[in-house]
């Protein structure tokens, strides 16, 4: 099966290279766009998706992207495996591992982002609670309600790291689920003591005087989000599957270094998140690997974490190669070439 897939992908790469070598006008006349549905959440870490749409990178690969939303968690994988979407951009949570253990028809095919200090998903508290002295450190959260956007998601791993760095454990707080856009209001009205809040929403809430960042340096270089392809997409559209990855890598390179601070990039992010470009430019930027490298050790750490949390439905640990396929990154790099930062 792997040999057959390698042959198919090699052919797909050849087709794409020939297509990219053709003049744009000819390309537009000779290729119709294949429409695919991509599950997303409109926050900063999804920016490569939006940049690739707006700059025509997907269209150049023969793709028309339709963005779709789900509540997250298990539903994203059910949507993917049932053929209601071709691609998911999402976190590495318990839902991933449980879905893989169940044999659902999908693969992890590439990375989305890493968190580096100052992280793009900080732990925040209300400005009122901070200014009054009620909450000034992580230790002050003991026994209180603290939110992640989805229970069993990668944000639980981040919260665990933030609490440990501040001297607490997950068992010493009440972990609840609150969607990112609802966190600032829940903090202000006292429904929450703290919560993780993704950029650029954190900077926007900060500008409005709603929140203070309690901790933003609790992880460094951890890979907790990924691209997922449905099995049907991989089997029926191998050329487009490679093309999607090539477009994603091009957009990730546009965001490398200070890309998020560029006016044109910030305007694209504003269009899809409804957060002003000026706020986007000041937000803590996530890191998108320009060569699509995945860290298998981080996958193991996450699986071990969710096992200890009692969130996994199986006993024997999954090996990365059971649910990860790096061949699409390898094929895409033959199209876009390796990336090296300029000095």
Q: Can you describe this structure?
A:
- With 343 residues, the protein is of the alpha/beta class.
- It folds into two domains: 2-114 and 222-336, 3-Layer(aba) Sandwich (D-Maltodextrin-Binding Protein, domain 2); 123-215, Periplasmic binding protein-like II (D-Maltodextrin-Binding Protein, domain 2, 3-Layer(aba) Sandwich), CATH 3.40.190.
- 43% of the residues lie in helices and 15% in strands.
- The chain has 16 helices and twelve strands.
- It starts with a helix and ends in a 7-residue tail after the last helix.
Would you kindly provide a brief summary of this structure?
The chain has 343 residues and is α/β, with parallel strands linked by helices.
Key phrases:
343 residues, alpha/beta, D-Maltodextrin-Binding Protein, domain 2, five-stranded mixed beta sheet, 16 helices, 43% helix
Tell me the quaternary state: single chain
> Number of DSSP helices?
16
If you consult CATH, what is the topology of the largest domain?
A: D-Maltodextrin-Binding Protein, domain 2
The radius of gyration over CA amounts to: 20 Å
Write the layout of secondary structure elements.
Blueprint: H1 2-21, H2 24-30, E1 34-39, H3 47-54, H4 57-60, E2 63-68, H5 74-81, E3 87-91, H6 94-101, E4 106-111, E5 114-115, E6 123-126, H7 127-131, E7 145-148, H8 154-166, E8 174-177, H9 183-188, E9 194-196, H10 201-207, E10 211-215, E11 222-223, E12 225-230, H11 231-236, H12 238-254, H13 263-273, H14 277-282, H15 296-308, H16 327-336
Parallel strand pairs: 1-2, 1-3, 7-8, 7-9
Antiparallel strand pairs: 3-12, 4-12, 5-11, 6-9, 6-10
Helix pairs in contact: 1-12, 1-16, 3-12, 3-13, 12-16
């Amino acid at each position: 099966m792997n040999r057959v897939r390698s042959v198919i992908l090699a052919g797909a790469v050849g087709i794409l290279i020939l297509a990219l070598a053709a003049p744009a006008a000819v390309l537009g006349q000779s290729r119709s766009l294949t429409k695919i549905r991509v599950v997303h959440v409109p926050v900063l870490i999804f920016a490569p998706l939006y940049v690739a749409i707006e700059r025509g990178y997907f269209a150049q690969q023969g793709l028309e992207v339709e963005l779709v939303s789900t509540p997250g968690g298990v539903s994203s994988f059910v949507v993917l495996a049932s053929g209601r979407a071709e691609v998911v951009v999402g976190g590495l949570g318990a839902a991933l591992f449980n879905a893989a253990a169940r044999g659902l028809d999908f693969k992890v095919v590439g990375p989305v982002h890493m968190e580096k200090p100052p992280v793009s998903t900080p732990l925040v508290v209300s400005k009122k609670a901070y200014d009054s002295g009620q909450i000034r450190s992580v230790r002050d959260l003991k026994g209180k309600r603290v939110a992640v956007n989805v229970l069993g998601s990668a944000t639980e791993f981040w919260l665990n790291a933030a609490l440990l760095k501040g001297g607490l454990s997950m068992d010493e707080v009440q972990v609840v689920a609150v969607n990112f856009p609802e966190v600032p209001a829940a903090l202000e009205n006292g429904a929450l003591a703290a919560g993780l809040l993704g950029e650029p929403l954190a900077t926007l809430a900060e500008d409005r005087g709603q929140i203070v960042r309690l901790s933003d340096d609790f992880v460094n270089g951890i890979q907790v989000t990924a691209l997922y392809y449905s099995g049907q997409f991989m089997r029926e559209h191998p050329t487009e599957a490679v093309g999607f990855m090539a477009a994603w890598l091009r957009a990730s390179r546009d965001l490398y270094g200070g890309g998020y601070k560029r006016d044109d990039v910030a305007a694209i992010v504003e269009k899809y998140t409804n957060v002003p470009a000026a706020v986007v430019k000041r937000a803590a930027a996530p890191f998108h690997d320009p060569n699509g490298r995945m860290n298998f050790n981080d996958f193991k750490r996450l699986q071990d974490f969710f096992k200890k949390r009692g969130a996994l439905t199986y006993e024997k640990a999954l090996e990365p190669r059971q649910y990860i396929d790096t061949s699409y990154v390898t094929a895409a790099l033959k199209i876009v070439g390796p990336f090296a930062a300029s000095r």
